[in-house]
Amino acid sequence: MKKRIFLLVVALVLCMSGFAKKVLSEENRVVTKSDIYVSGLKFIIFEDERAAVEHDNSYDTLTTVVIPAKIKVDGKTYPVTGIESRTFKYNSNLKSVVIPSSVTLIWDRAFENCSNLTKVVIPAGVISIGYEAFKNCKRLKNITISSKVEELGNNLLAGCDSLESIDVASDNHNYSSADGILYDKNKTKVIKAPKRIKGSIILPSSVTSIEESAFEGCKDITSITLPSGLTTIGDFAFFECEHLTDIIIPSNVTSIGRRAFGRCRNITRVTIPEKINEIADGLFSSCYKLESVDLPSNLIRIGEEAFFATSIKSISIPKGVTIIENNTFKECVYLKSVTMAGVKRIDYEAFESCNALENIVFSDDITKIGPDAFRNCSSLKSLTFPSSLAIIGGDAFNNCVNLTDVKMTGVKEIYTNAFASCNGLTSIYFPATLSLLEETIFLGCNNLTSIMVDTGNPNFSSVDGAVYNKSKTTLICVPAGKKGKLVIPKGVKEIKTTALYMCKSLTSVKFPSTLTTIGDWAFFSCENLKSIELPKGMSVIEKGAFAECRGLESIKIPPTLKTIKEIAFLNCLSMKNLLIPSSVTSIEAGAFMGCVNLDIVIDNSESNVPIEEIDMSGQKSVKYLK
């Protein structure tokens, strides 16, 4: 009984060949007739009297296709020489295709995602098969490349999960095969291995290059022996080789492409050759068992996500590497120690969620730590920044819950939430160099009670553990752990946006007579604040200024106030009585929303203080005196 072989003959025309120039040139693809239907298939006819089959929505239900060698239109016969791009793409019902010997060209993606295609007979006349022509044909098992093949389209067989072998005719002048793996003629390049290849692989000594995606998705390979003459490993070369446990990269390798070993989940140790000066993006991303990496001394770049979610325990970055890029060591949950000899910049999420990280030795040249760089590094206890560090990005150390000590000497800019939820912090000292402080830097630092500013700082000052501008006319930040009463010094005119955000232990505030402005969300969620008396001179209560102050029982509004902005007192559940003076002419949407126990008295008429019904929803009552 004959063994069933699912046959593919794969071809692509070289641009240098005269035939290719003739067949593929645009001038020879001028369509003279279209929308021609013969034997249930749709065709087009070109100016040089060739025909090609093309896509039609009616193909979606076909299970078997037999393409004719020629078609007759208006009494004239045309040879069928091509299958156009995407002709049968996404036909999941198609199981068998018969292609006539007249066909020379199969264009890009012609059979892509024909997931049930089990048999394809391609005659020796075919000279070109395009990009991704059989991609995701998941049931194809065997492929035979005939003697006439000159070049293969990229990703031709990507996603062919059942592919067991790739065979090449012995008299092919461009390609060869061994043990089911496709090579160039002289076996210097590994082009493609079938996904179902298994066990230990030994590559020929002649191999110098492993091409892009050559072994991608070969999940049953357990080991591979690379020849000493190998110099290049392409992008995704061993991506998702999940059972690959050991690999020795030869010393002559000078280039390894993007994600070449990404998701090789069982690799435990790698030594990168000295001739490598760049670790490409995602090279070992999601190699969950990778515990140890030896980096070459002449390294100048480590790419994005290079070691994402590996199990490395310590890393020493060579001096030539000046940037730790986005997500490079993100989620390395066993990483305890990092030394950075020459790093000047640490980018977005570079070490995010390295939960075991305890020790960081920064380079003396570091100037910037980017957003989220060390977010969720819950084992960090102390940080000493070199004087060169100028910028700490937003959320850089957010949720480093055990961080207790931070020393900075040259920092100039600190951005939003940089140390948010660092509950171990009790005090911090700002240097004379600091020139920019964004909002909520210490959001949720419930044990932080004191922020001190160097007396030589020209931009900021501190009083009673709170931060003001240098002239003390603006209150910028009160530490979240501030307890009891806050007395704001005379001369202060403005309380900045979010200045007392979530100061949950604050019970009272004394405002100076000079105060005119309280910014958005300034007292948000000051839950134990009991009473407020706003000074004369204030004209506006800004958006969310006292929102979620659930313990606030009373507030005295001055006769100078004109506007209460939206959700200013959102969910102030303990407020019971409020007199709004006649000076107030505007109450914006939801100003008292959720104040379910509040009786409001407005010393004005409803016509003078227009309020939409929805804006006052949630109050117990509203009464106008005029």
Write a brief structural summary.
With 626 residues, this protein is an all-beta fold.
What does this structure look like?
The protein has 626 residues and is an all-beta fold. Helix content is 1%, strand content 28%. It has one helix and 52 strands. Strands 1, 2, 3, 5, 6, 8 and 10 form a seven-stranded mixed beta sheet that branches. Strands 13-14-15-17-19-20 form a six-stranded mixed beta sheet, with no helix packed on it. The protein has a six-stranded parallel beta sheet with strand order 26-28-30-32-34-36, with no helix packed on it. The protein is elongated and about 95 Å long. Mean pLDDT is 91; it is low at 1-27.
| Number of helices, counting only DSSP H or I runs of 4 residues or more | 1
What structural category characterises the helix and strand content? mainly beta
Main β sheet profile: 7 strands, mixed
Radius of gyration: 36 Å
Labels describing this entry:
single chain, 626 residues, mainly beta, 7-stranded mixed beta sheet, 1 helix, disordered N terminus
Question: Secondary structure elements and their pairing?
Answer:
Layout: H1 18-24, E1 31-38, E2 41-46, E3 51-54, E4 64-66, E5 70-73, E6 76-83, E7 96-98, E8 105-106, E9 119-121, E10 128-129, E11 142-145, E12 165-168, E13 175-178, E14 181-184, E15 189-192, E16 199-202, E17 209-210, E18 221-225, E19 232-233, E20 255-256, E21 269-271, E22 278-279, E23 292-294, E24 301-302, E25 314-317, E26 323-324, E27 337-340, E28 345-346, E29 359-361, E30 368-369, E31 382-384, E32 391-392, E33 405-407, E34 413-414, E35 427-430, E36 436-437, E37 450-453, E38 460-463, E39 466-469, E40 474-477, E41 484-487, E42 494-495, E43 506-510, E44 517-518, E45 531-533, E46 540-541, E47 554-556, E48 563-564, E49 577-580, E50 586-587, E51 599-602, E52 621-624
